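Q: What does the predicted 3D structure of TonB-dependent receptor look like?
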Amino acid sequence: MNKIYFSSQLLNFYVKAPVAFMLIAICLCLQLHPAMAQSKFSIQGKITDDRNQPLPGVSISEKGTKTGVVTNIDGLYKLEVSSSNAVLHIAFLGFDSKDISISGEHTINAILTPQLKQLNDVVITGYGKTSKKNLVGAISSVNAGEFTQGVVGNPSMLLQGKVPGLTITKSGNPNQTPTVILRGPSTLRSGAQEPFYVIDGVPGAPIDMVAPDDIASIDVLKDGASTAIYGARAANGVIMVTTRRAKTDQFRIAYNAYVGVEKVAKRLEMLTGDELRKYLADNGQVLAPQNNDTIPGTGQLVNTDWQKEVQRTGVSQSHNLSLLGSSKATTYGFSVNYFNNPGIIKGSDLNRLGIRANVGQRAFNDRLRLDFSVLNTTTKQNNVPDAVLYNMLNYLPTLSVKRPDGSYTEDYAGNIRGSSNPAALIANNIDLTKSSKFLATGLAEVKILEGLTYTASLTTQREQYTRNIYYNSLSTLARGNNGKANRVTWANTRNIIESYFNYDKTFGKHNIKLLGGYSWQEDRNGDGFGVTTQGFGSDALSYNNLSLSNPPAGTIVFDNTGNTTLTTLRLISYYARANYQYADKYYFQASLRNDGSSAFGKNNRWGYFPAVSAAWRISQESFLKNNRTFDDLKLRVSYGISGNSLGFDPLTAQLQYSTVGRYYDSGQLINAIAPVQNANPDLKWERTAMLNLGIDFSILKGRISGAIDVYDKQTSDLIWNYPVSTTQYITTTLLANVGKVSNRGIELVLNAEPVSTKNFSWKTTVNLAHNTNKISSLANGQFTLKDIPTAILGGKGQSGNWSQKVLEGQPLGTFTLFHYVGKDKDGISSYQRADGTITTSPSTADLLPAGNAQPKLTYGWSNNLSYKNFDLALFFRGVTGNKILNATLAAVNTPTDAKMTNIAKYTLQESYNDKNSFLISDRFLENGSYLRLENLTVGYSFKINNVYISKIRLYMNVNNVFTITKYTGIDPEIDLGGLTPGIDVRNYYPKTRSFIFGLNAAF
């Protein structure tokens, strides 16, 4: 406990000690160098590539000094150096650097040779970076030019389909957070499957704070050896985000903007008003007069398309203005981003303004580096009730949107039709969330000795949320309440201290890298308050003045959710890593992290997370040194253990009390309080151990390269609420570590450049991933659980049924459904009982396993072509081998209710008397495989001969061009996260197709 909870004096020590040490180190680094007068010597020249094409932007400097320039668009440069014997250092990204002695010449031309780019790319790892050729773990890197394009509100979408093993799903809702899963689900807890994000070295920073145009690259750490350096938070993988920073002697202003027009990609086909009337007439039925409107003054029957009434064409826009610059020892950057994404459902939208700034300073002959950066975003999100998405399908098309008096058509009594007017649901309900996020980081890096560097950073983060909900007096969501308001506001803060040493030294053929550090973090969450009240005399002020409400006694409710439950969580970590490299052939790495968290039981607050890995670069061996096939060939093996503590706070393992009802005492209404959660002093984080075998290769001078990885990922100590006896415990369940889950898979990525000429090039990348998920165990000697019923979807007569189960030996997302066998002689849907007999009245005992939601294969295929100034990008992605439960179609397949709700065109094949047609069964379990042309982009870059303008590119992009699938629902991209993946359940926000027109300009 003493290691976890600091006194203020101890906290001051941990803050001040690194700072004091840094100041002492700075003083030791002070060196005075007398200025020496030198006569200047002028040189000039041209820099070209191996095809004699000029290279603009090449850095040319005098070696050993800070004097330098960059080439212009024609590859030309002029430079004054200190003497005629100076040495030029010529460097350009993607090409081998050169050092050239001037030897008294005034004209120095040079030809640069392209590097094997995929081997020399810089990859960000935990608390460091390395080149791809030196990697010993499974890390996938995606640069800005390779990101998935489109109307992107969350930067994680930039990786969709680009990284093997990384599954990202999202509907068309602009306010929905994408679901991100790496190498299969490894927990039973919803909201705890997402990877851990690190932005510019800041652990746990919100990914949505960064504008997509500000990101330079993203590195995905996948195997246990790569992620274990982040210990208890890395079991789901780690995603490292690197933002754009100024390069040496650079001044650049960039403006990137686009306007996107979004339309619904597909809709569920429902009956028109005339088709519904005919269906009823064919079955001897007729609509009630209240449900069969005519257009006033014409006598013409109404045909309302409710999907059309609530949907719209959304016009999104994004503007990003950035400035990057450097001069001598100072670098700086600033960017502002505005993003507006109106949803295609009226009333929903996302509006965000983000500002980012950073400044860096080097001093004392580059022995000291200081850096300060700030991020701030303000966001507004308007949401519509989920009921809109279902009611736009089933509300009667024979009704007008409004009555002649201007009021919305509505059945407030609820006895004529069993649904609500979707247009009225949008008009009569408000759900607005405002948020502000602030992140500031200060960093100091000191080169103490040759190869020894000390880094200290301090980060502070604050998130402020306010959610305002108002159901007005006409809302069917709060009937009889005369207006109902809910306001909740809360703030989360986080402070982080990172302090670590890096040592990098080469001795002949030996290279050693050492890392040792300490991390301290404090999260203070749920600092807020919320209240719900009702009974307003007017809707004019909506949620803005709650004191005007007149609630009946006992109807004021105070928010007691996790958002407004104040907690303070502390994390302390000690970590170390050692890398050894011999002769650029043999690589070894070992790391260990010791994490302590106040979230877990007092007996298990500390844990160790070790990792080891090795690599053999076979292509550097003498027997392959001169081969004509392989440019690079490397074998990798790694094993590491990491933890999962997502979603936990200091109350998780504690005995908790809460209100459990109200009672009268002496005429007063009193809240009753009782225990609602048992304490578990032995609760600890889930642990994931992963073995990874990999091969990296490059052939034909880098024209073809790739990697193959095979992994075995075993997670133990799964956390779940287990039933316990009240003779031993206060309440009936206990949160405990019991279960195990397994993920085994193989991943392949292949890069190729089939064509590369002066005017035309074609680059292509294919990635494939297969994962087998299985629940290994749900019980042990102390706690037992046969299965976990999930996906209780409800619906007419089905409130107690479940559609999925967590079963030992089966993957997460295993469907358990009634087995549909057809119709009986009366046209009634029939099902197989558990004993094999046939019935029209199945029960939960008849639910049978029926497939699962996990894909057998996910894939992506990128193509980038360029011809002179034109560029074309085509990106395909898809999945295969999974099932989707189309519960939405089941819910609208209700012929017996066709006089009260609309039905799907699919229902025309049903008997009107089929009372079971809507029952969720394997009849509605469909093939979820699809192939989608996700992105098509055509661009043109203008050749600019202007000293002030370096780039102008116009482009047009189509997103979600087409989808090949057998799935009959709105879209096969169904959420694969959480405990109930692969279910389309009446609240699917339609997927969009976007047409984007954009500009990239640099000055």
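A (community wiki): The structure tokens above were generated from the sequence. The first strand starts at residue 41 and ends at 48. The domain at 122-256 is CATH 2.170.130.10 (Ferric Hydroxamate Uptake Protein; Chain A, domain 1).
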